[in-house]
Amino acid sequence: xxxxxxxxxxxxxxxxxxxxxxxxxxxxxxxxxxxxxxxxxxxxxxxxxxxxxxxxxxxxxxxxxxxxxxxxxxxxxxxxxxxxxxxxxxxxxxxxxxxxxxxxxxxxxxxxxxxxxxxxxxxxxxxxxxxxxxxxxxxxxxxxxxxxxxxxxxxxxxxxxxxxxxxxxxxxxxxxxxxxxxxxxxxxxxxxxxxxxxxxxxxxxxxxxxxxxxxxxxxxxxxxxxxxxxxxxxxxxxxxxxxxxxxxxxxxxxxxxxxxxxxxxxxxxxxxxxxxxxxxxxxxxxxxxxxxxxxxxxxxxxxxxxxxxxxxxxxxxxxxxxxxxxxxxxxxxxxxxxxxxxxxxxxxxxxxxxxxxxxxxxxxxx
Length: 366
What we know:
- The structure is a single chain.
- Helices cover 79% and strands 0% of the residues.
- The protein is mostly helical.
């Protein structure tokens, strides 16, 4: 090697390595701050309410659940409120935000479309149609099993929509554009079907259908958290395992992904199924919360960049924090009236998203 060539290159390489190191350090700091903020939000959600509890009492009650620390427990109404009402509600908020955000990141990655979310693929409108059928038939009022009938029909309807989207897309080799257009078509179809059911519903049934479509975390139980969270835990490793494929898809589409050795059709189907299954499981329990899967991925991408290896878990943190803050705002701002989280999350998310969009517009255009 010519020494005169090596000399000028070394400072450039060193500068590049320094810039990469600073970028990684910045991402770690942002991630650490987000996790810390999420921890504070969890404590606030558990302690604040109609009857607030001190943070120290909340921590003591939580620690009493660990083996050997049972003596720290203080039995009474406050403990029951914490463990049977606030804790499962908070857990469902985290599951909802994390699952919908990761699904949104995955769908935006494989389609290269920033406007794609579980809602725009028809999953949420299809779940609303299934829940509307259960309400119209009166199955939601059956003793003991009413709530589960609503969840079952909502989940089944969402999966029928997913099968239809994938079936239409597979006719042309699972092309991204076909996937998006099929989702848009099913969104309008199931929206029209739900509207038709509302036309024949009684006043009580109509109120129940409309309330379900608002999206709410009220009355969530540990069984529901376990089912939705378990499905999301199964789907999350699938999405993380395809982070490299998502990077290839988002960088240059199918051609670039294929040139890098990614099995395009198989990867697209696996990612779509995992994202759809995760979204359907959540929406079936909580109702339509459509904004999280669209805006949380963008907020996460603006903060740490587009590498899906970091973006997927960070989007889960951002989504969980967004839903948790929205739920607290809905519970506390107009107490004792509880505003559904599906409404509040849009009011909180839009200003934050617009602020990041304006302050970081140079990074997006770079």
